[in-house]
Specification:
Layout (H helix, E strand, L loop, with lengths): L1 H10 L4 H16 L35 H9 L7 H8 L10 E2 L2 E2 L28 E2 L5 H18 L16 E4 L2 E4 L11 H5 L6 H15 L4 E2 L2 E2 L16 H4 L2 H9 L2 H7 L2 H9 L3 E2 L2
Antiparallel strand pairs: 1-2, 3-8, 4-5, 6-7
Helix pairs in contact: 1-2, 1-10, 3-11
């Protein structure tokens, strides 16, 4: 829905077919029952299905990749959630904050189950459209949250405490992807010697120099080992000579949008231009520095 709202804004004043597409998106946006996922509580749940109902019993509490769910749910013009669900559920009544530092860098928010920072997609998925620049609430400045998260991940790979072959300032980035043992949420606390290109490349807005070095290394040095018809393959391990030629779309979907956000701010500008999103952010107590 975050992406569709970007599309709606882009085509809203276009030709007749473009306006029709924008209106279809608007209809879908208005029909989405965000409040249903409160499950009668003061927190969003992930997820409900006709077969299993609420059996998963998974409340969405921060901090991880799901901030955008609360922003969208609070911004809904037809089925909104109350601000209390954000503060009591996502922010855990203020317990989302932390004074912890890693490599001397403040973590700012408690990363769920990850004292040294979660997988890097946590700093990407919510921010394809949601612009963290100057975005803050009573819990955090979200540019600092994302930049610090990325720097911690980078510094961990440079330190390379497990001595995996290939890690370094030009080859870094831990996030969820394939591994030799199947799917893993790679992060400093769960390191299997696997580098995932989307981790460093989708972090371009936060660490352009470090991400740029990684891009050059991935493309010009590793080349065809990790590059194919649709761009970079999902993951690789120099340590284990493991170069699977396969993609994982959800872990690749942030590379182009986040590089474009670094270049021009296109997706950020489109999403943040939505009047409903501005109202939702205000409702949740966000401030946006100009």
């Amino acid at each position: 829905m975050q992406s569709l709202l970007c599309v709606r804004q882009y085509f809203a004043n276009g030709n007749d077919s473009e306006k029709a597409l924008a209106e279809k998106i608007n209809t879908l946006w208005k029909e989405m029952e965000w409040s249903w996922y409160l499950n009668g509580q003061d927190v969003l749940y992930w997820h409900w299905s006709p077969e299993y109902q609420w059996e998963m019993n998974f409340a969405i509490k921060g901090y991880d990749e799901c901030l955008i769910a609360y922003i969208l749910a609070a911004s809904s013009p037809t089925h909104p959630i109350p601000a209390s669900a954000y503060h009591n559920g996502w922010a855990r009544k203020g317990q989302i904050k932390t004074d912890a530092t890693v490599y001397g860098v403040p973590l700012i928010l408690k990363h769920n189950g990850a004292e040294s920072g979660g997988p890097l997609f946590w700093s990407h998925y919510s921010y394809i459209g949601l612009n963290p620049r100057g975005l803050s609430d009573q819990y955090a400045n979200y540019w600092d949250v994302n930049r610090n998260h990325t720097l911690i991940n980078y510094m961990y790979c440079v330190e390379n405490p497990n001595h995996f072959k290939g890690y370094g300032p030009d080859c870094w980035g831990l996030t969820a992807s394939y591994s030799m043992e199947g799917y893993h949420a790679h992060m400093p606390a769960n390191d299997h010697g696997v580098i995932t290109p989307t981790a460093a490349l989708s972090s371009y807005p936060y660490t352009p120099e470090e991400s740029g070095r990684a891009l050059n290394h991935f493309y010009f040095t590793l080349g065809d080992k990790i590059w194919g018809k649709y761009g970079f393959y999902d993951a690789f391990s120099i340590n284990d000579n493991w170069y699977p030629k396969r993609y994982l779309a959800i872990d690749q979907c942030t590379i182009a949008p986040m590089i474009e956000n670094y270049r021009t701010g296109l997706l950020w500008n489109l999403f943040m231009s939505c009047p409903e999103i501005q109202e939702g952010l205000n409702k949740l107590g966000y401030a946006i520095a100009q």
